[in-house]
């Protein structure tokens, strides 16, 4: 059973989608709501991080750590769906990743832990960034982390996602999971196994483009910050 169908809108891990230029912010009520939402999400991902560490210390092994944080992970990943609505309030890139839909399938694979750890660190930084940005008091350390740690976290997360999809393929093919066969009244067929293979192949052109875009954003944002600090 496996986490498959990944590579959704967390493709930029929340780092490359925000422009450095200032935009008109949301109203006071919307800002208050968004601050509370981002604080709660930051706290939630901190709970997940602490849960992972405590489970590892208790077991002395990283195998099957997913079960120790399964419930809060699913809860806060589902909470991320609200970010679709938030786009109407403020231009904030979403962090939703469609891997979460399939987390119940391959939970014993070490690759699941690989991208869950990458997600956890990324989301703590991302929601902290949004919170302080909304309050107009963004610490340089958080900005630096947001535009720097993706260098390691993005390849780490993508590798975990691809390995997990690969591990899921035999089960998907054997069970016919989410596949639709002909004949049926809609005269429509869908092979989920083939779809997953195409998803894996899509990483080849997409990953380098997004990664180099994020590197460009990093140079742009951090160099602008350094120049601003020197001028003060």
Automatic annotation (TrEMBL):
Transmembrane helix listed as a keyword: yes
Bilayer topology annotation: Multi-pass membrane protein
Example GO molecular function: very-long-chain (3R)-3-hydroxyacyl-CoA dehydratase activity
Pathway this chain belongs to: Lipid metabolism; fatty acid biosynthesis
The reaction(s) this protein catalyses: a very-long-chain (3R)-3-hydroxyacyl-CoA = a very-long-chain (2E)-enoyl-CoA + H2O; (3R)-hydroxyhexadecanoyl-CoA = (2E)-hexadecenoyl-CoA + H2O
Pfam families for this protein: PTPLA (PF04387)
Group of enzyme by EC: lyase
Any one annotated GO CC term: endoplasmic reticulum membrane
Keyword annotations from UniProtKB, A to Z: Endoplasmic reticulum, Fatty acid biosynthesis, Fatty acid metabolism, Lipid biosynthesis, Lipid metabolism, Lyase, Membrane, Transmembrane, Transmembrane helix
Family stated for the protein in its record: Belongs to the very long-chain fatty acids dehydratase HACD family.
Function according to Swiss-Prot or TrEMBL: Catalyzes the third of the four reactions of the long-chain fatty acids elongation cycle. This endoplasmic reticulum-bound enzymatic process, allows the addition of two carbons to the chain of long- and very long-chain fatty acids/VLCFAs per cycle. This enzyme catalyzes the dehydration of the 3-hydroxyacyl-CoA intermediate into trans-2,3-enoyl-CoA, within each cycle of fatty acid elongation. Thereby, it participates to the production of VLCFAs of different chain lengths that are involved in multiple biological processes as precursors of membrane lipids and lipid mediators.
Name of the protein in its database record: Very-long-chain (3R)-3-hydroxyacyl-CoA dehydratase
Source organism of this protein record: Lepidothrix coronata (blue-crowned manakin)
